[in-house]
Amino acid sequence: MSVGIELLGQTAHIAPLLERARSGRLHHCYLFEGPPSVGKHTAAELLARTAACTAERGPFPCGQCLTCKQMLKGIHPDLIQVVPDPKRKSGTIGVDQVRELIRQVRLRPYNASWRTVIVDPVDALMPQAANALLKTLEEPPPDTGFVLVTSRVSSLLATVLSRSQRVRFTAVSEKELVPWLSAKELPDAQRIARLSLGCPGAAIALGEGGLVAMDEVRSELIQVLNGDIPAVIDASEALSRTKDAKAGLLLWLAVLETLVRDTVMWGCDRQDGLIHSDQPKLIAAWAGVLWPGGAGRLQVLIDQTRRRMSVNVNNRLLVETLLSATLRELGPASRARLQ
Ligand SMILES: [Zn+2]
Question: Which of 152, 263, 264, 335 is deepest in the core (most CB within 10 A)?
């Protein structure tokens, strides 16, 4: 691919859109939906540059013309980004931001043949803000297109969905992801690719320290599970006293989930697909007792814990319940240690 393009995979969805952008036939509103960090925002910016690039049209924007350069730097007035206001603690996009956007798009584009507005994530729009935006989506200003980005399409208003052309992004295959990560000289490319569930942005974050942090959490978790119920209670209390207890718990949940997932892979004779490929003995010991019934029960409990956390119930009690249930399910296998 060309200069400044970091989009991986998604060719089937994106190539026809880029073709439309080159020939000036873009729809006025697209909804890019798919898992977090899979490349939706990168693709939205690529689309904006393709539609606005002033160079001889190749398959991708040139990356060299003034428009491309300014858009890559985020300083071109015809690429408008609407994101949650960092001043709002709720992480939402307010009606004042949408009113300002509407004021801007009523003016003619600055100099590009096509102006793009990216709203990411569109599910962060407050209801009043979403309603204000709807009127603009109904009667879009000339030469202006919207790309709405979300990983939570089910939370969007039907009226927003009905005005958009939906583009579904899918996980990138390991076959594409591993060489891409290796080329960036990130360590443990295979494990990172698997752990990211095919989302390149998440894979990069794992490569830049996330995997090390996750492995530390894994050691903590295995150590806690090497103990008994009182040890679990102590660990839960300690975790609940930390500064960001909720984030800590979510990380524990995520790591436990990957371990349970690996026991299922092991049970299905898919040892080549393990996330914790560096710990085959531990996974074998866990699979010996968890596969198939216990793995299913633990997965239900993990999902339940995550849902309850979103409504802010007592987090410490949730950790205790989850870890105690894990201990019970593991039985003697809870004594398995990391290699
Ligand atoms: Zn260009």
Answer: 263
Using alpha carbons, select from 339, 291, 320 the residue that is nearest to residue 227.
320
> Is 50 exceeded by the pLDDT of residue 280?
yes
Average pLDDT over residues 127-138: 92
Cα–ligand 1 centroid distance for 7 (angstroms): 17
Residue 80 DSSP one-character state: E
Residue 3's pLDDT band (cuts 50, 70, 90): very low
- Interval between CA 3 and ligand 1 midpoint (Å): 10
**Cα(122) to centroid of ligand 1, in Å?**
27
CA 52 to centroid of ligand 1, rounded, Å? 7
Q: Ligand 1 centroid vs 70 CA: distance in angstroms?
A: 10
Distance 141 CA to ligand 1 centre (A): 23
Provide the percentage of residues in the chain whose pLDDT is more than 90. 58
Domains of the chain: 11-168 (3.40.50.300), 174-335 (no CATH)
Q: Residue 99: is its pLDDT beyond 80?
A: yes
One DSSP character per residue, 242-280 reads STTHHHHHHHHHHHHHHHHHHHHHHHTT-GGG-SSTT-H
pTM for the model stands at 0.80
pLDDT digits (tens, 9 = 90+) for 190-206: 889 988 889 999 999 99
Ligand 1 centroid to Cα of residue 90, in Å, is 37
Q: Is the pLDDT of residue 4 over 70?
A: no
Distance, CA of 69 to CA of 55 (rounded, Å): 12
44 C-alpha vs ligand 1 centroid, how far in Å? 16
CA–centroid distance, 74 to ligand 1, in Å, is 14
> pLDDT tens across 11-20, in order?
888 999 999 9
The pLDDT of residue 5: 53
**Distance between Cα 24 and ligand 1 center (Å):** 15
